[in-house]
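Quick sanity check, NAD-dependent epimerase/dehydratase domain-containing protein:
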Amino acid sequence: MENQSAVLIARRVCVVGASGRVGSWLVKKLLERGHIVHATIRNIRDPEKAGLLKRLPGADSRLHLFEADIFHPHQIDQAIHGCEFVFLVAFPTKPFSNDSERAAAAEGVLAMLQSVLSTCKGSGTVKRIIYTGSVASTSPLDEQGLFTRDFIDESCWTKPDAQIPHPSDYAKFYTSIKTASEELLTSYGAKEGELEVVILDCGVAGGDALVDSVFGVGGPLSPLTGNTALLANFVFLQNLLHSVPLVHLDDACEAHLFCMDVPLTSGSGRFLCASDYPSVEVCGSSIKGGSSKLTDMGFEYKYGGMEQILDESIKFARKSGTVKRLIYTGSVTAASPLDEHGLLSRDLVDESCWTNPDAPIPYPSGQTKFYTSTKTASEKLLTSYGTKEGENSSQLEVVVLTCGVVGGEALVDSIAGVGSILSPMTGDAPMSENLMFLQNLLGSVPLVHLDDVCEAHLFCMEVPLAGGASSRRFLCASDYPSLWDIMAHYRLKYPHLLVAEGPEMGGRRRITGGSSKLTDMGFEYKHSMEQILDESVQFAVRLGLIKDI
């Protein structure tokens, strides 16, 4: 496929939206193939965005920059003049402050498409438009939010009225306008019969890039970076599609070039562009891609597996060359000693313990299951990454701090984390369920004070990684009380505040911490279990969650 593309004659093409992650890489590949490229960016005087494109090989003789804003579509006309192919990549990426701005942007995007279609049709030179679509427009959910099929293909269209919990107003805008744009372009190509339209419904694009932006790749990296907004988008895709379709950025751009000459049986063609359809395990099953239209026509993915795409994404995140060490905040939920039958197979928890994804664990909620499975997968990916990179000291070092439940005072007015250990006094039912879940999962409720956690992160900036490996995993918990130990402390010190009693301990086994790796290297915990619990209570009083002690 690559050799076939390399011998094509040079064409004059237009890339609308050339400064972003996909657009800049597409310009790079077009220039490498010898094409003449008209590229639009919002500000041609921007030294960073314009300069990046001007420095590409072949740009001095075959790249022409045009200043254009998608909300002023007449500015795009000059860039289209004389071109055979138009790549529509541009899409608004900034969130909107109110509904009127959002509505205006939606109208603006569709007006831009209508304008470009009209200009291309009247140009006399444009043969085909290639639009960068999104898998967000291919949901198999029906109006009630139920999955009606067990695969995704090009016949799937996201229902505007489907009961989908969008994580943000922008996610709702993106999904609805991408879908409306594709429907408009598809109907135009089928109706007009003169101008050909190709839509590439791209999965989440991972891998390396020219621009220092995690837009797009931020979703797959969110379990590692801890970016809650991007993690919410990642979960949204899982709920929308029952999988998270992935494609390497280079494969996505190769597919754009491939579609310059792919034959169309009608005036338009819609192609799913994703090499893998993994699940983030929010649900028990996943929906796979049911389309091979693109590969049936001769296209080949070079980056076929999820692992390769994610590994390339991590390399992109650290390619600045200045980062020496990545310190990841893990969770003890990734260190369960339960076996595949849900039985405690040992009397202690240490760094060799990994939560078994097949263990019959009664999760209190889908979010808890997602958190546990994703934290486990993230820690495994990071530790294996360090091992694979070898002993070269120039490589990125990885430290994973597998942290216990964090208690104590905090700067932010939130009980996230500490809520579970406060649940016997707040009466919060979901938090009580989480506390019991931790006890069942780990055979204890590992605790650590917030200040100790942060001190451990600082300590791990300089701790030597012995043995030549570039990755280390450390359990970070100062005490391993059981749920009943916690209840006993509250009963002794705050009997008047208890609103809930825990279940009987019965014959349950106690599991203790079996690792001293962190303290063996010189780290010292400053806070005991009693201090952690007492400061958590004081924190809750300050927030008004429980009455004054």
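Posting the structure with no commentary besides this: The CA atoms of residues 1 and 300 lie 7 Å apart.
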